[in-house]
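Q: what does this look like with S-adenosylmethionine bound?
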Amino acid sequence: MDQELINTIDHYIAGLVAPADEVLETTLQTSADAGMPQIHVSPVQGKLLHVLALLNGARRILEIGTLGGYSAIWLGRALPADGQLITLEHAARHAEVARANLERAGLADRVEVRVGDALTLMQQMIDAGTEPFDLVFVDADKESYRDYFQAALQLMRPGSVIVADNVIRRGAVLEATSPEPTVQAIQQFNAALAADPRVTATIMQTVGVKGLDGMAIAVVNR
Ligand SMILES: C[S@@+](CC[C@H](N)C(=O)[O-])C[C@H]1O[C@@H](n2cnc3c(N)ncnc32)[C@H](O)[C@@H]1O
């Protein structure tokens, strides 16, 4: 693959449909300044999340893995004024930076950053009988993806959408006997998602400035 050409195409697409603005640029800059890893979604992927949220008329969104709030801004901007996004992050420093970025984005009234282990926080929401989410975006530790999927199913309704990032891992998922725990976990997640009769799923290869990877997208069956 010609990564240079792929990058140029990604920049072309981003220039058309996901041009950077001051809020998004500052979000990435403050995250980098805080020494956080540069593992946010790309602009084009952020716009995909935004479009998916608009497509299913999302009023309530759950994000697993906040980092500096970059994808949360893309998702939050798709919410109506009375919508809500809850984003889960176990690193207190990441949550602090994200809160400042979401405030700067004018989304503090509809985006809540909850700090803690995502599975624990999801179980608390299940136990509390939390109103279902219309869209769940999974983008945290890969080892827990299967558990996030099972927990998310208890927090969604028929027609809800679940999106999971990084499910191809530069093709490493093709290696059936991979010794890599994250690859094994993603292989198990992909198989579980594909086989689960409660959802209709697809997996799209993603190429772009983030390299070769994939996004799983599924809808909870009606
Ligand atoms: C890939 S980054 C999220 C990127 C973000 N969604 C974006 O695109 O802007 C993953 C984040 O998940 C957090 N994380 C990892 N394991 C977690 C866990 N068990 N519970 C909550 N957050 C976790 C990490 O600290 C990191 O900030």
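The longest strand covers residues 156-165. Residues 39-41, 65-67, 70-71, 88-91, 94, 117-118, 139-141, 144 surround S-adenosylmethionine (CB under 6 Å).
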